[in-house]
Here is the input.
Amino acid sequence: MTQRHKFRKSMSRATGPALAVIAVLAMLGYAIFGPTGLYAWGEYGQSVEKKRVVLSELAKKERELQNRVNLLDRRRVDPDLAEEYVREKLGAYHPDEVIIPMEPAAK
Here is the structure.
């Protein structure tokens, strides 16, 4: 057996384990640095906090809108809100009127 033949034989034997090691290293790298890896956990915490803030703002806005819907119910319309709404949509303000916006009443 020539030395070249021995080298080829040892290289063919080492190919399988080398590919297995490369595959394991790639999986470990993905587990650490990937989008769901160890480094991403910190970002998830920050993202959750930001989304909680947005959720609380949206919940507040939803309550405000629900209050306006309740006030504009056809069976029992709040007269002041109806007048405000109609005048706003029609642009029916007198030039010397002073309009003071008010917060909707909370339940």
About this structure: Residues 3 and 9 are 10 Å apart (CA to CA). Residues 51-107 form one domain. The longest helix spans residues 40-71.
